[in-house]
Specification:
Length: 722
């Protein structure tokens, strides 16, 4: 088989993404590769396909012991022979796998670095035919990130001991220092580097000014209809994780905590439930997430500011791996800035490290305060240039207004000065607003010149002013950590009124609807019932095999079943994500379910003895005859739907048969299509190997022509070529 055939027949995908094919060819030819691709980009196929084509077993090094089992199971669902070896297996299990290896029965073997590096295992590899080495999450070799694993630095042994075996190292981290570390530590100097775009267009980025993070989180979840969705909420501390998870649970959401301070068993159990069940929210510290390849995480929320843009990108990147729309939402406020600044300034690290930390903090603060497209800033940080604004972030959807904050800034700065540069923001705001409380009286700050001079702004607005001044470095935070603010050198020109300063007008209540949603979320009536039935079946199948539901089918595949209503195995095989094994195991089950549903809910099945386009015969059922009759008498499609009380897809199905049998003209049915459009759609169908697949055509036109239209156009071609 060729790589493309494997992609098609085993994985059920139409075409390679980005440089997948080039990478595969490079490995097949025996070269080394370093692949930098974002989460969800499709890195695994880059070594899985060569693993099946080269003789011998591919050894995949992965630090994710807890997830290996699922990775292997997902491969087995495709009929691929894979296994894993790590410390969780007992002696008997290890023996079985060793035997399989000796018998050359495996295409892929996942191992932890610890296991790989044992002399025994290396000796064993000497006797084994190896197809390739894949090093997953290879950024773990670098001390720069927070995922550093010391064993990774010893992986050079692979190169020394097996110089002729190709190596492919993959990661979703792309910053320069990490990349350099990977190349030097692993001796990948001669490796070809493949870098994909790090854009994640399906993720909608959004940041709100933090007031009460928990309530705001709840509002976000409700407004975005994230009920029954899987999601991750990131917090900075363990305490906040526990509080937030508890609170969400009280509000009726399925939320589970996850952090390093928990009992190991319980923590793993929570991770398992997140993977196995639908609609679980994990509330976690950064300890959670690496390697979580659940494809349908629909949102990632930050209720505290992450330490760097890299961390933010990695964490938000766990949303929407399946390519369907997903949300990245964050609440961010002055407290975050104060806390992180303090952490950086008071850290014990050496000066060079501290400077780097400061630089990173500055970058993420800049991102939060930006008034133009967020995606442009984010990608720019990774060295990519996005020419046009994205249209899928808050600042694009709801452009941010700025205001002349020169006078307000002067008042804020001088208030800090008049109160001797040692008080926190709430105190300063009270002074500006002219509040007299005991503390203010005690320090006699009701007598200073800035007392009560800020009544034109609300407390919230002052918070916003202070936050922006801190973020931009005009105000510093005390190192002792009591939150006292003081002026920096750069604030002088502002105090003296020499430079104007424009501030971001924070939006407290959003007015526009955000984020595009997946199609299945807007299903209603029969379609919704069908979706639920299919999803339930998927869950049942998954549970009985003790695997996560997405391993059976992704949401996008179920979505296609509802939209395309495949009636035959051939049609089913054309859905995205359905390879030969999955077709064999699940195709008929889902087709039967679809038919059961159709009978039950009045949507009669049209007889379709149709397998391939060549000997396709349109059989017009009695029910279709009725529809076609009504249509020919001048009833509109809407009228027929009402009169016959059938689903619109069914009525269109009848009309499609009419067109295919030559009883109706295409343009009678689809009245708003112009000739050139029809020609374009036809060309697209005719350029395909088989006309059975609708989805590639649908995708080609970015969904502007719905499936009803596509079916009708296809029917008219079929009539003509018969
Ligand atoms: P990564 O490891 O880069 O995060 P994965 O390898 O897990 O990403 O791939 C992400 C998802 O995209 C998976 O569900 C995978 O099956 C799917 N995928 C990968 N390549 C393709 C392709 N060429 N066409 C369609 N889907 C693909
Ligand atoms: Zn944008």
């Amino acid at each position: 088989m060729s790589p493309a055939e494997i992609l098609h027949q085993i994985f059920g995908y139409q075409k390679f993404r980005g440089e997948q094919e080039q990478i595969i060819q490079h490995i097949l030819a025996g070269g080394d590769a370093l692949v930098l691709m974002p989460t969800g980009g499709g890195k695994s196929l880059c070594y899985q396909i060569p693993a099946m084509l080269r003789s011998g077993v591919a050894v995949v090094v992965s630090p994710l012991i807890a997830l290996m089992h699922d990775q292997v199971i997902a491969l087995q669902q495709y009929g691929i022979k894979a296994a894993y070896l790590n410390s969780t297996l007992n002696y008997d299990q290890v023996r079985i796998i060793s035997n399989q290896l000796r018998q050359k029965e495996l295409d892929l073997l996942y191992v932890s670095p610890e296991k790989l590096l044992t002399p025994r295992f290396l000796d064993f590899l000497d006797q084994t035919e190896i197809a390739l080495f894949a090093i997953d999450e290879v950024h773990c070799v670098s001390q720069w990130g927070h995922d550093f694993r010391p064993e990774y630095t010893q992986l050079t042994v692979l190169h020394q001991r097996f110089p002729t075996i190709p190596r492919i190292a993959v990661t979703a981290t792309a910053d320069e220092p990490t990349k350099r570390d990977i190349i030097t530590h692993l001796g990948l100097d001669n490796a070809k580097i493949f870098t994909a775009s790090f854009d994640r267009p399906n993720i909608c980025y959004r940041i709100v000014q933090k007031q009460n993070a928990k309530t705001q989180l709840l509002e976000f979840l409700q407004a975005e209809k994230h009920h029954n969705d899987a999601g991750i909420v990131y917090c900075l501390s363990r305490k906040r994780v526990d509080e937030t998870a508890k609170w969400l649970t009280q509000q009726g959401w399925q939320a589970l905590p996850y952090h390093a301070g928990m009992d190991n068993k319980l923590r793993e159990q929570h991770q398992m439930r997140f993977l196995r069940e639908e609609g679980v929210i994990i509330v976690a510290t950064v300890a959670f997430g690496m390697g979580i390849d659940k494809p349908n995480v629909r949102f990632v929320a930050h209720i505290d500011l992450p330490k760097s843009l890299e961390a933010y990108y990695q964490e938000t990147g766990r949303a929407g791996r399946d390519g369907l729309p997903a949300n990245a939402w964050m609440a961010y406020g002055l407290q975050d800035v104060v806390m992180l600044k303090h952490m950086v300034d008071s850290s014990e690290a050496d000066e060079q490290h501290k400077r780097i930390e400061q630089h990173k903090l500055k970058a993420i603060l800049g991102y939060c305060e930006i008034t133009t497209c967020r995606r442009q800033v984010l990608l720019n940080y990774f060295g990519e240039n996005l020419v046009n604004i994205c249209g899928n972030c808050d600042t694009c959807i709801e452009p941010v207004a700025t205001w002349d904050g020169t006078e307000a800034s002067q008042k804020a700065l001088s208030c800090i000065y008049r109160t001797e540069q040692r008080f926190g923001v709430q105190y300063l705001i009270d002074v500006l607003l002219g509040k007299t409380n005991d503390r203010i009286k005690k320090f006699r700050h009701n007598k200073v010149s800035t007392f009560g001079i800020g009544k034109e702004l609300s407390s919230n607005q002052w918070h916003s002013v202070f936050r922006q001044l801190v973020a931009r470095g005009f105000i510093a935070v005390d190192v002792e950590g009591y939150g006292g603010l003081r002026l920096t050198e750069s604030s002088r020109p502002i105090l003296r009124g020499e430079t104007p300063i424009f501030l971001r007008k924070d939006i407290s209540k959003r007015s526009k609807v955000y984020g595009r949603t997946s199609q299945w979320r807007s299903f209603s009536g029969n379609d919704k019932i069908l979706w639920d039935t299919l999803a339930n079946k998927r869950l049942g199948l998954a549970n009985s095999q003790n695997v996560p539901p997405y391993v059976i089918f992704h949401d996008s595949t179920l979505e296609d079943i509802v939209l395309q209503q495949p009636q035959t195995l051939a049609e089913f095989a054309n859905l995205s994500g359905v390879g030969a094994k999955k077709l064999e195991h699940y195709g008929q089950i889902f087709i039967d379910l679809l038919n059961e549903h159709t009978t039950k809910y009045g949507n009669q099945v049209i007889e379709k003895p149709i397998n391939s386009t060549i000997d396709r015969v349109a059989v017009v059922s009695e029910s279709a005859e009725v529809t076609i009759g009504l249509f020919n008498q001048g009833s509109s499609i809407e009228d027929i739907i009402i009169e016959r009380n059938l689903k619109s897809t069914t009525i269109y199905g009848h009309l499609v048969l009419g067109i295919e049998a030559g009883q109706l003209e295409l343009q009678q049915v689809i009245t708003n299509l112009k000739e050139p459009e029809i020609n374009e759609i036809e060309d697209q169908f005719l350029s395909q190997e088989s006309m059975d697949a609708l989805k590639p055509v649908f995708d080609y036109f970015d969904g502007i022509y719905n499936y009803d239209i596509l079916r009708c156009v296809r029917a008219s071609i079929l009539y003509r070529i018969k």
